[in-house]
Amino acid sequence: MDGNIGQITIDLKGQVGVTDGHKVLATKEAGAIQFESTRWPFCFDGDTTSAGGTRSITPFLTFNQDLNRLTLTVKNLEAPKAKVTWGEASKEFTKEQLAGGVNLAAEFDQTPFDKPFADLVNAVGQKQNFETYMIKNVITQFRNYPPELKADAELQSALKTVSERLHARQAELDAAARATLLPVKHAISVTPVP
């Protein structure tokens, strides 16, 4: 795992290039492109000063640089800088920054991946909460039954049914979490700023 979520290269006088996990859906005009991505960056929530969100840890870690790189490189920008709009958010970068590549995941606090990522985190959290209850409060308690109950065939059959139903519910929650992993459609536009 090298931390490279993907590379998007926009040549303002030529083609758009993407790496595996990303594809170009449409190019509306020079520097305005629609994409579909199956490789997602990790999305932080909250702000950099709130302990209630995950974003507040980012100034203290190199996570985005090491493990969360969705890099945009812009070639043939003739202006000294450009406004990059990704989804609903915009930010200005110098020609040199864009030529060297900017990490969208690190630079943008609001991304097109935020909602799908939150949906995934929520689904995984529901699955984990159920699994914790299932294992800690039910299945591991089976071994604590007195020996005479362990010899009771009818009780053992009932416990097997309970275990099967719990595992079936866990499988449903797992499938629901996996179902949130859909390709994300997003757009990037690069507008030269004189």
Summarize the structure in words.
By secondary structure, this protein is an alpha+beta fold. The chain folds into 2 domains: 4-110 and 182-193, no CATH class; 115-179. The protein is 37% helix and 29% strand. It has helices at 63-67, 95-100, 104-107, 114-138, 147-150, 153-179, and strands at residues 4-11, 16-18, 22-29, 32-37, 69-75, 81-86, 89-94, 102-103, 184-193. Strands 3-4-9-6-7 form a 5-stranded antiparallel beta sheet. A 4-stranded mixed beta sheet has the order 2-1-5-8. The protein is elongated and about 85 Å long. The model has no long low-confidence stretch (mean pLDDT 94).
State the order of secondary-structure elements, H for helix, E for strand.
EEEEHEEEHEHHHHE
Give the percentage of residues in beta strands.
25-35%
Structural class: alpha+beta
Poorly predicted regions are none
Q: What is the helix content?
A: 25-40%
Question: How confident overall, as mean pLDDT?
Answer: 94
- Shape, principal axes of CA atoms: elongated
Rg on CA atoms, Å:
24 Å
Count of DSSP-assigned helices: 6
**What is the rounded distance between the termini?**
39 Å
Estimate nothing, just give the exact number of structural domains.
2
Strand line-up of the largest beta sheet:
3-4-9-6-7
Q: Could you give the count of β-strands? A: 9
Sketch the major β-sheet. Answer: 5 strands, antiparallel
